[in-house]
Amino acid sequence: MILIAESGSTKTDWVLVNDQNEITMFKSMGFNPFFHSSEFIAEKIKENVEFYHASKNVERLYFYGAGCSSNEMNQIVKSGLSLVYPNSLITVDHDLLACALSTYKGEPAISCILGTGSNSCYYDGQTLREEVPAIAYVLGDEGSGSYYGKKLLRDYLYNQLPSSIKEDFEYQFGSSKSEIFENVYMKPHANVYLASFMKFLNRHYHHKYVIDMIQNGMNEFIKIHVCCYPEHKSVKTHFIGSISKIFERELKSAAENNGVILGDIIQKPVDNLVNYHLNYIKV
Prior knowledge:
Blueprint: E1 2-7, E2 11-17, E3 23-29, H1 38-47, H2 49-55, E4 60-65, H3 71-84, E5 89-94, H4 95-103, E6 109-114, E7 118-123, E8 128-129, H5 136-139, H6 145-157, H7 163-173, H8 177-186, H9 190-195, H10 198-203, H11 208-226, E9 236-240, H12 242-246, H13 248-257, E10 261-266, H14 270-280
Parallel strand pairs: 1-4, 4-5, 6-9, 9-10
Antiparallel strand pairs: 1-2, 2-3, 6-7, 7-8
Helix pairs in contact: 1-3, 4-14, 11-13
């Protein structure tokens, strides 16, 4: 029995595959070693009783997660998983690798994440290469949920929102400057908090303010995170994540404007990730 996990900062998709290749799926909160300790990860997994009991006899565990970008960070997650699955052979790697594997079709491609955060890589089936680093939501994450949420809150605090959007924002959230500051600067998981405003922006999608914001963010992501690859005009560029799927029209426009060959846009990559493991890896 194997367990495959694809974890962003907001949620984790878990897929349990038994010896007959029968699949059972579960969800949990997202785990990121920059924000969560080994003990926290173990505690939250065990709290999901149905999932824990179904998966406790796992022999192989593949975990791909946001923030799992160094041996030190990977060890935090691996130690937490080992507390839950002491008899399992555990592999922890970056969610960017999961992105590459879930979009791999036997030919080199650029693979991108547009979810709570954003990132990109080039993958040829053997080697994964990044041209620019992911610098997280404070400095980067262009085109992501946290990026757009930050812009919305900034415009609200600067009193630059269109009146109809401002009125609805105050009706929905009643947010004061102190409340926003507390969530952004004092509480954990500020990136998830910022990205949570995407539902609100999507509700106002047809307003020019939102359309322009999304389009500008997509253009910025393409220019920084796709056009940096010498191959960007000769290979397909695939996308995973909710933001890429919800705002597919703006993404297509940004790709076309920059001469990028758009490939697949996948909201939920875990199904493709499972297929990759079953087809390409001896599990």
